[in-house]
Amino acid sequence: DSGVTQTPKHLITATGQRVTLRCSPRSGDLSVYWYQQSLDQGLQFLIQYYNGEERAKGNILERFSAQQFPDLHSELNLSSLELGDSALYFCASSGSQQGEQYFGPGTRLTVT
Amino acid sequence: GENVEQHPSTLSVQEGDSAVIKCTYSDSASNYFPWYKQELGKGPQLIIDIRSNVGEKKDQRIAVTLNKTAKHFSLHITETQPEDSAVYFCAAQIPGANSKLTFGKGITLSVRP
User: Fold this and answer.
1) B8-25 pLDDT tens trace
2) What letter does residue A84 receive in the DSSP assignment?
């Protein structure tokens, strides 16, 4: 158990809908990262937050957004969902801006 | 940006044998190289990592070696066991404001009993 929690574990929704994925980092970790894992693209970095502020963006679509709250939990919002958004979404946390990242169990999103 | 290549894509070994998984990276500025193990239905688990100021690191049956000149690093698993069967990912990180991990595509390791 990495200490990173994610909810929900599974999510099934229809195209055009909006969902919110939640992540709680390990106790004391200030950095939260979001990654998308699909069969053809592997693990792709989406976005990073550090102590409530956005620090870096990767291959994140404009339909996707995230935030980190004062209690350091983070939410990833996915809107206008398309079939291609079906994937595993992982969050990871780190105690610093460099080095070890610990992953949560992921949320499996299925868009039908 | 960084690009990480992982070879081979699948590997099958007999229980008790050693397994070696290799990765190459493109950006010489990368200085942190973790390895993750992902079992079915679970998130990636950090199993070992190495920084660019070290050439080798060991932890029980697993070791990682780094060749900065050639820009490649390898995961070595000795005395493999069926529970080592999983997908293994290598990654690289460039120091700086964007501390994302760039992952290889992953290798599926199967350990035959």
Assistant:
1) 889 999 999 999 999 999
2) G
Handedness of CA A60, A92, B2, B104 (dihedral sign): negative
Q: What is the pLDDT of residues B54-79, one digit of tens each?
A: 899 999 999 999 999 999 999 999 99
A4, A97, A103 member nearest B99 (Cβ): A97
User: Nearest Cα to A49, choosing from A75, A31, A27?
Assistant: A31
C-alpha of A70 from chain center: 17
Residues A20 and A37: their CA atoms lie apart, in Å, by 17
Q: How far is A112 from chain B (nearest CA, A)?
A: 20
Spatial strand order of the sheet with B72-77 comes to B4-7, B19-25, B72-77, B62-67, B56-59
For residue A73, give Cα distances in angstroms to A102, B88, B101.
Answer: 14, 28, 20
